[in-house]
Amino acid sequence: MQYSVADAKNKLPELIKAVEDGYSVTICRRGVPVVDIVRTKRPTRKKRSLGTLKGKIEIIDPNWWKPMTEEEVDDFLSGRR
Questions:
Q1: pLDDT tens, position by position, for the chain (81 residues)?
Q2: Residue 27 in domain
Q3: Which residues, in sequence order, are CB contacts of 24 under 8 Å at separation 6+?
Q4: For residue 58, is it within any domain?
Q5: 3-state secondary structure of 16
Q6: Structural domain tally of the chain?
Q7: What CA–CA distance (Å, rounded) separates 50 from 64?
Q8: Structure confidence at residue 15 (pLDDT)
Q9: Which residues lie across from 80 on neighbouring strands?
Q10: Run of H or E including 18
């Protein structure tokens, strides 16, 4: 299959599907072949692995998300700890 640059630009999703289906696609500029689209042999990124940080994160205060008490607000505003 040969396509001009303009045609390839307009039909890129279709060309990608054709390559996935095993077809050879060549893109030409002014009738001269310049690019072949080929399917990659293997994926370029690894599959995600969930839970890789389990046991590596230390939660110092499990209630960090709760609102501060009035006393904690007063201490914070006065600069005391």
A1: 899 999 999 999 999 999 999 899 999 999 999 999 988 887 677 778 888 888 888 888 888 888 989 998 998 898 765
A2: yes
A3: 1, 36, 38
A4: no
A5: helix
A6: 1
A7: 25
A8: 94
A9: none
A10: helix 12-20
Q: Write down how long the chain is.
A: 81
Does any domain span residue 73? no
Residue 63 inside a domain? The answer is: no
Structure tokens at 21: 């289906």
Residues 6+ apart with CB under 8 A from 50: none
Residue 79 per-residue DSSP state: T
Identify the domain containing residue 29 by its residue range: 2-37
- Write down the pLDDT at residue 81: 53
> What gap in Å lies between CA 69 and CA 81, rounded to an integer?
14
Instruction: Kindly report the pTM of this predicted structure.
Output: 0.49
Chain position carrying tokens 């293997």 = 42
pLDDT at site 80: 61
